[in-house]
Design brief:
The protein is built from two helices and five strands. By secondary structure, it is α+β, with helices and mostly antiparallel strands. A five-stranded antiparallel β-sheet has the order 1-2-3-4-5, covered by helices on one side.
Length: 109
C-alpha cells in the first residue's frame, strides 16, 4: 500500500493510505505550532490507532508525519527514520452500548 497526498491548502496537509483505512494529517494551529495526527480505522488489516502530537516547528511535525507513514506502510520499510523516536498516543475506542442507547437509534440512510 502507498500513501497519497489528499489535501494541501497551506493550513492542512493530509495523506491517505491506498486502502482508505488510514490517514495522517498535519495542520497549523491558530495559537501557533503544528499538530500531527495518525488515524487508522478498526477495519484496517493492521492495528487500529489514533495518535496526536503537537510540535513547535513545521520541520519536526513533517518528520513525525513521515515516520507514521513509514510505520504504517505494509509494503514499505515498516519503521520510523532513526531520528524520530516512536511514541504511543491514546487509542480511539468504539462507543459503549450505554453511549449508543443514549444517542438513540441511528438515522435512516
Amino acid at each position: 500500500m502507498s500513501w497519497s497526498l489528499e489535501r494541501d491548502d497551506g493550513t492542512v496537509t493530509e495523506w491517505e493510505r491506498s486502502d482508505g483505512y488510514a490517514t495522517v494529517r498535519l495542520r497549523e494551529r491558530s495559537a501557533g505550532g503544528f499538530v500531527v495526527r495518525l488515524d487508522v480505522m478498526e477495519q484496517a488489516t493492521d492495528e487500529s490507532a489514533y495518535e496526536r502530537e503537537r510540535f513547535d516547528g513545521r520541520d519536526a511535525a513533517e518528520e513525525r508525519a513521515a515516520a507514521w507513514r513509514a510505520e504504517r506502510d505494509p509494503d514499505g520499510a515498516g519503521g520510523p527514520p532513526p531520528s524520530v523516536p516512536r511514541r504511543r498516543g491514546c487509542r480511539r475506542r468504539p462507543p459503549s452500548a450505554r453511549t449508543a442507547r443514549r444517542r438513540g437509534p441511528a438515522p435512516p440512510p
